[in-house]
Amino acid sequence: MKKVYMSLAAFLMASAAIAQESSVTKTFWDDPINDPMMPVYAVSAMVFIVLVLVLAVALYMVRIVNILIEQSEKDKAAQEGRVYVPRPSFWGRLSQKLNDSVPVSQEEDIDLGHNFDGIRELDNHLPPWWKWLFYGTIGWGAVYLVVYHISASFPLSIGEYDREIALAHEQAEKRKASQPAVVIDENALKYTADAAIIAKGKSVFVGNNCGTCHRADGGGNTIGPNLTDEFWIHGGGIKNVFSTIKNGAVEKGMPAWGKSMSSEDVRNVAFYVMSLQGRKPANGKAPQGDKYIPEKEAVAVDSVKTQASL
Hints:
Layout: H1 2-21, H2 38-80, H3 90-99, E1 111-116, E2 119-122, H4 128-150, H5 157-178, H6 195-207, H7 210-214, E3 231-232, H8 237-247, H9 263-275, E4 290-291, H10 295-309
Antiparallel strand pairs: 1-2, 3-4
């Protein structure tokens, strides 16, 4: 048997080494037949089945022995001329010991003489398992008092909470240090048709309740204005749009998204809003506010007025 065990151990070690050296990323269920651990699993399954069969046979043999013993006691009781009383089973004896219950035939010994509508009062004691559990809670309470309140070996709930909060703050600071926030200079901000920024802005616009008031296509609804035309309530252009998103307009129901969004997200949303200019969504809301003329057009208009006045 010693040689068999040594051979089996060497086989398992060799299979594990093959599994470690293999660079294949497939799992066992992708190709169980050719998996290097298949022999290990097969042997393990066979060992498990054998153990189950051995246990079943052992239980069956115990049952046979108990039957033979019971038959022998019956024959002995018949020879002695007495009534055979079967012994209680193991579970019966265990239940009797745990509950300390009095058999029905002996209830007269614990009758307190109180009878209420045919219900007798018996002097039964608490089950031992219940008393052991109660004593265990007392011991646990004493250990808890010493460990948590006297020696402070472990933190209380509030201490664990404070520790988790401090750890979360520390991890947040590390994330901020590794991913520094993008600084947006609002005064020098200029719009460019950057596809990456516009795509990020669209995802924030659609998923951050902006589309609820302005529609996902920017066409506007009963709450928010149309963002695709040339008319603006709080001024057009990238700087005004950025400022409106950041600071909001409480009187118009526009929240200050700069309090809950990063400057980079505000910039991205502003770029997306600017990219909607010129589109004509179906059932777009009527224009609101004043028509915005870009600065270069305003300069051209002023120069025309100056020349005309000359």
